[in-house]
Amino acid sequence: MSSSTLTREQSAKAFDGHQYVYSHESSTVGCKMKFGVYVPEKAEKEQVPLLIFLSGLTCTEQNFITKSGVQSLASKYGFIVANPDTSPRGCKIEGDSEKWNFGESAGYYVDATESKWSKNYRMFSYINEEFYDLIVKNFNVNPKKIGILGHSMGGHGALISFFKRPGQYQSVSAFAPICNASASEWGINAYTNFFGQDETLWKQYDATELVASYNGPKPHAPVLVDQGSDDSFKDNQLFPERFIVACKTASFPLELREQAGYDHGYYFIMTFLEDHFKYHKNEFEHAQ
Amino acid sequence: MSSSTLTREQSAKAFDGHQYVYSHESSTVGCKMKFGVYVPEKAEKEQVPLLIFLSGLTCTEQNFITKSGVQSLASKYGFIVANPDTSPRGCKIEGDSEKWNFGESAGYYVDATESKWSKNYRMFSYINEEFYDLIVKNFNVNPKKIGILGHSMGGHGALISFFKRPGQYQSVSAFAPICNASASEWGINAYTNFFGQDETLWKQYDATELVASYNGPKPHAPVLVDQGSDDSFKDNQLFPERFIVACKTASFPLELREQAGYDHGYYFIMTFLEDHFKYHKNEFEHAQ
């Protein structure tokens, strides 16, 4: 581990491995960024697969590692699991902390183009370049077995990362993703700020738009998306039905499961998280 | 469920069952009390075992249900798991919220005798009478299969409940319990407030003292206690070694496992929680 770049903020043994939190100075987003990373005991001896988990609105790097029970699964499956923060922090841009669904804790995993935001709000490049490289370089990752997944805004982040970076990830899955960000109220507000009025820019960060033009490697098994039936955001912000139609039109394989009675929270995520581990494991086994 | 006594504050589906939070007006401690209860799907059809989990200092009913991953295990084993709060709240007694280790969030599961505290700080009676009865009455509990466990101050609470109520619980276990409360700094401060200077009262709520005179039913397998080796409270507040000696002297069966590298937090608890489920299940199978 390169101690010049990473500062250990937290360390706790869990299921024979360790749950860490590190911080580093990010050149991409221009501030100090924290992330969580679970390292299973297995990674002491050999390279292991990596899952990158992107969190939803209001989250820091803490929510997922505290509430999802991921450590048990990461240990069982022998995966490193890394989870970044959801936005730059402390940049003191006017308007970055007035709304819970925009700005700090709500970076939407995009690279903003409007000058007010474009220096710091570059979460797409942060996740898919700086953070990705940092994890691969500093931990014992098998670079041919890397998957990405996320929840809500982070499910959107995982899907757009997969579609915009063909071949970078061997697998993708999502929990209750924002499927059509450029047409949801949250997304419209965020994208108007980040990109201005040019909606062609908005559509470059929208899973339902991107799947139409995706021509990278197809997954072995249909991409796994879980969506709770009792999720109050389902029909007004997430729009899973539109993504189903777009995938069908594009002949892109998707298994979107509606889970009866589940809501939008971490009890929903923890319930189906093992299915996602199995999905990614299966994709890794079929990856070249 | 008697809706006149319980108010549902939270409900979320998890692993086919439900994680609830309820509140009720407690006659024992004289204020509104919240608790968590996970009800597995199995309890819709039949009576199931109950585990009562007591939390540690600084906790509300939220910490355990948010951080431990218990829902996965409660569903798998088919147990109801109920977890009360750690103290009365909102009673506005001078000095009840100045220290993190005394008063609100820090009731030590005792019945205070000093007049300032004795009206509200009756957590021993609350847990072992009012709360116990409330859970058994309102949920589909098999009253012959009830176990108690806890963490830190709550591990102390579980052990003293088992010792002071012979036969009420079929099983007990603990994570990093305060083993000798009347001789630890936290306990001395709390017990001086709750009981005054009479140390014979202190010893009535101290696992290491109580095991000496316990003559109730013996557990089938040695009582399971897990203790992290890297727990910074181990040698100055918890005193597991004293409990080991006291159990040996009393010929009370104890398996105290020192877990190398683990600390005092929830990552430690979540790692070994399934072993505790297995322990209680085994005791239930041998119970009359």
UniProtKB/TrEMBL annotation, chains A, B:
EC number(s) given by UniProt: 3.1.2.12
Organism annotation: Rotaria magnacalcarata
UniProtKB keywords: Cytoplasm, Hydrolase, Serine esterase
UniProt entry tagged with the keyword Hydrolase: yes
Catalytic reactions on record: S-formylglutathione + H2O = formate + glutathione + H(+)
Protein name per the record: S-formylglutathione hydrolase
GO CC annotation, single: cytosol
Main enzyme class: hydrolase
InterPro entries linked: AB_hydrolase_fold, Esterase-like, S-formylglutathione_hydrol
